[in-house]
Amino acid sequence: MRQRSSFLNPQPREIKGLLEPAIIKRLEKEKRGDGFGRDYKPFLTVRDVPSKGRIHRRPSLTHNRVVHLLSDLELAAFLLFDWNHTVTDIREQFPLNPESTINIAKRLGIKHPTHKAILQIMTTDLLVDFEINGQHSCQAISVKYTQDLEDERTIEKQELERRFWENEGVEWFIFTEHEVPRITVQNIRWLAPHMHSYELDAESLRTVFKDIVKTLDAQPEEKLPPLLTELDSRLKLKPGTNLKYFRHLSAQNAFLWDIHNQPHTKLKAKHISPSDYWLNEDIEYVHAK
Fold this sequence. Notes:
Layout: H1 13-18, H2 21-28, E1 56-59, E2 66-69, H3 72-82, E3 87-95, H4 98-108, E4 114-115, E5 118-119, E6 123-132, E7 135-143, H5 152-168, E8 171-175, H6 182-191, H7 202-218, H8 224-234, H9 241-251, E9 255-256, E10 273-274, H10 276-279
Helix pairs in contact: 4-5, 7-8
């Protein structure tokens, strides 16, 4: 059974009394942490919390919803799952039932996370659903840099999270930078800065996308840069324009390739596929904010 997070009703009065109104609003009115797939709303968004490093909003291949990722490492972990064809859903910043985490903290003699004496809702970075040979499974993923795991308080909170998912019968894993393949990192660094490099209107999006698709289809054995330089020439654009468009649209999941095994420096047209969402014009374009 897939995990739900709508745990406030019914909820013990003493637990509700420990939550600040803003948190209750997120859970009850905004339905944060509830739903599945395209309808899911993360408990935390990039606007809610300060982040270590860069934050990312990007469309997902799995459900074509804009996801909220709070670090470069979360982006790397997310991409590994988003490109996995056995993954059916990914829910980021998933809230944990505070009644359960408080009870676990009491049993372990660990202080439950609070801020200025106000109870905080614990979250899991990624909750991932898989479908393999008709069998559903779920994994909870905590994304942490290894240096953070040297902190005693961080270890305590990780143990609270681990025990919570153990009680739920869900496998729980820690994901660090050591789990990220080298080629994947190279490709992410090439794409991520171009997520917001252009602000294209709907007509321009369709035109640029279709122009690049036709160019790739015409010469499958050709390397990417000369192909797009040729397109620049035909359209009388400054050299490099369509390569920048390609990087922007690829960061928006318009164009796909095996980012884990195929470095962008060796891309040929035959390695690249247009996203089904974009081909069907069922896209959620991420504008800079």
